[in-house]
Amino acid sequence: MSEFISTFTASMSQNPWLFAAVSFVFAATIGSFLNVVIHRLPVMMKREWQAECNFYLNEYHPDIVEQVGEKRLNKPIDVFPEKYNLVVPGSACPKCNANIKPWHNLPVLGWLMLKGKCANCQTSISARYPIIELLTGLLVATLAWHLGPSVQFLFAAILTFFLVALTGIDLDEMLLPDQLTLPLLWLGLLINLQGVFISPTDAIIGAIAGYLSLWSVFWLFKLVTGKEGMGYGDFKLLAVFGAWLGWQMLPLIILLSSLVGAVVGITMIITKKLHAGKPIPFGPYIAAAGWIALLWGNDIINWYLGTL
Description:
This protein is mostly helical. 67% of the residues lie in helices and 0% in strands. The protein is built from 11 helices and no strands. It has helices spanning 2-14, 16-57, 65-68, 109-113, 128-147, 151-173, 178-191, 200-225, 232-245, 250-270, 283-307. Helix 2 (16-57) packs across helix 5. It starts with a helix and ends with a helix. Residues 64-77 have low confidence and may be disordered.
């Protein structure tokens, strides 16, 4: 097995285009699963919150009020009795419940074969599904081209998969789940014990500085305005990049994410797609800035210092 891995790695090192192509296909397939994560994980979280409310407050979902009336029961009712996770139930059309055939789940190609419509009821299928698959494939193919078949590439690809899922969920729900950010944080600290990207000291300081920097901004803004300017998930996501890339990259990530977020926010206000005062998710901008810093952070910093 080790001989096969060595041969494969050597072959891919000599053929970067082939390695990038293989990485694209694999990552696009993972992107198909990330679509499931983006849609289902928030639903799973909401069901869990509902179950906790039922248990602690003995309050019930409006759909079953008629069944129990105003009576309070000692044993809370299971509002969602059917099993629901990232695997069950299988993929189906949300309108007609027709099962989606395996070949229709092929990344990008499946959507094209269906012409963007359900094979059974012809309901339109969002173009976001192939876009996420294509984006995931392109991002990982870019990593493959720059990093080659290496340990750094392996973990950078894992980070990318998580970032795609986090970005999609934050855009939909204004939420960065702990189920994704915390494992990434611990994984960054763990791999950098071996110095995969940075030294252990830089990783630990980076995680602390990443969290506390936005945490401090949050409380300063709240003390001045009485409003919350961002969520705790943003603190944790920046801590993730601190753990993976070190404290040295944090100023660049904060600067890039703030600039892009400001440009997008102002553009949306001008085009009347966003009302002034309405919150927008900041996680996607942190994720994009962190991913850029992963590949080109040192080059950008060296370029900037060279211009001084």
